[in-house]
Amino acid sequence: MLVYFVTDEPTKLPAIRAMLEPQHAVVPWVLGGDGTGIRSHGVLMVDIDLRQMPRVDQLKFILHELAGIPEKLFVVHNLSRSMVAQAHALGATSVISRPKEAILKVAQIEAAEAAAEDNAADPAVEMDQGAAAFASMFSDVRRGRPLKLVDAKRATSKIITRVGKDGLSSWLDEVRRYHEGTFQHCLLVTGVAVAFGLDVGFSDGDVSRLGMAATLHDIGKARIPLSILDKPGRLDAEEEEIIRRHPVIGYDLLKGVSGISPEILDGVRHHHEYLDGSGYPDGLAASQISDLVRLLTISDIFAALVESRPYRPPMSRQDAYQILCGMEGKLEGALVRAFRKVALGA
Ligand SMILES: [Fe+2]
Ligand SMILES: [Fe+2]
């Protein structure tokens, strides 16, 4: 089992190593240091002083990067009540009072994972694998590494299988329960777009192209500062301008990747274009916007509305659909009508 040990005190590392190795591999991540080699599976073990806000801020960045790791073990010395609450607010799945308790916890997590692997057809496991591939793709791009198309393909095909088998509603519920931020958004858009493509009778090839375009549509956001991406509340004009660069950033990241199809590049660059020419970045007119992009744009807006955010409850699917219906002129009316069944889950 890989244990990522996040600490603000490098001197703590030898004791952790002595305790967990060689049964487990300890990968250190010292706050403020370089986290080279970080992947998206294993256990995240956090032992930092949560009273120090700058350190908590650095930790939040790491947690965002490692959103795909489901187990987050926090060491809170003496189990101080306010710090335990802080750990849970940061996403802790377990809180222990001494590093030594990690031995038992990691063994339990490993046993549970082995049992899960025996049951790989379980939909929850399929979902985790899709989410893990997604997480590793985002994290690579954020760290300036090349994007691996194979991760995007793996995530997309897991989502297609899952949505095809269990429907969109269970996917929406699960993603909203376990993930947050841009990561949650992309998983939702892909689920919605795939359900839409399946519902309108797309061929398998078209469903996977649409799914891939959805998986990658906001990949450019991996290069936008988290302080803007995760800002609760309104963005100012300058922040807005920065965020509006993400379709072009995504397009530039992907255009040189071998094996990428032109439809996917089109979706990534143009998912914020509107039929009346009021969208961005290219202000395209209706005839220049392909069917795949039109479906993607509808799925994107719908998913953004029904997302759950820490600072507001998700909008109901009915209300979100009403908003789409009010965007006549920007979205294709016939497609919005065709989307009704998917949107309302009817
Ligand atoms: Fe976008
Ligand atoms: Fe989006």
Task: Please give a structural write-up.
The chain has 2 domains: 2-117, Response regulator (Rossmann fold); 123-344, Hypothetical protein af1432. The N and C termini lie far apart (43 Å). It contains 17 helices and 5 strands. The protein has a 5-stranded parallel beta sheet, sandwiched between helices. With 346 residues, it is an alpha/beta fold. Helices cover 55% and strands 7% of the residues. It is elongated and about 65 Å long. Residues 217-218, 246, 271-272 line the site of one fe (ii) ion.
CATH class annotation of the largest domain: Mainly Alpha
Structural class: alpha/beta
Radius of gyration: 21 Å
Number of helices: 17
Strand content: 5-15%
Main sheet, how many strands, which sense, barrel? 5 strands, parallel
Helix content: 55-70%
- Arrangement of strands in the largest sheet: 2-1-3-4-5
Low-confidence stretches: none
Specify the overall morphology.
Answer: elongated
Mean pLDDT: 87
Classify the fold: give the CATH topology of the largest domain: Hypothetical protein af1432
CATH superfamily of the largest domain, by name, is Hypothetical protein af1432
What small ligands are held by the chains?
A: fe (ii) ion
The beta-strand count equals 5
Helix/strand order, N-terminal first = EHEEHEHEHHHHHHHHHHHHHH
CA(first)-CA(last) distance: 43 Å
CATH architecture of the largest domain, by name, is: Orthogonal Bundle
Counted up, domains total: 2
